[in-house]
Design goal:
The protein is mostly helical and about 90 residues long. The chain is built from seven helices and no strands. It has one domain: lambda repressor-like DNA-binding domains (434 Repressor (Amino-terminal Domain), Orthogonal Bundle), CATH 1.10.260. Helix 2 crosses helix 3.
């Protein structure tokens, strides 16, 4: 399994969980099957750049965020924490 697919899978799961989205909801918003999202998260699928961009858009992050190691802090914070960080920054 490619290291980049592992990073993508981990970051995708972090971003999805941060928003409390199910795989099914994310899949619907991205136009793919839920099992495909599951396969990406487990590092078994090799999504296209276009799909990575769609997933990122649905999650409110950049495609770069999804393939960055270590995972950006923005993927780890909850959305309400983001608003507080922006207000104080």
């Amino acid at each position: 399994m490619s290291r980049l697919r592992q990073i993508l899978g981990r970051n995708l799961r972090l971003a999805r969980n941060r928003l409390k989205l199910s795989q099914e909801v994310l899949a619907g918003e991205s136009g793919v099957d839920r099992t495909y999202v599951s396969g990406i998260e487990r590092g078994l699928r090799n999504p296209s750049v276009d799909l990575i961009e769609k997933l990122a858009g649905a999650l409110g992050v950049t495609a770069a965020d999804l393939i960055t190691d270590p995972a950006p802090e923005s993927l780890r914070r909850k959305p309400d924490e983001d608003a507080g960080a922006e207000a104080s920054g």
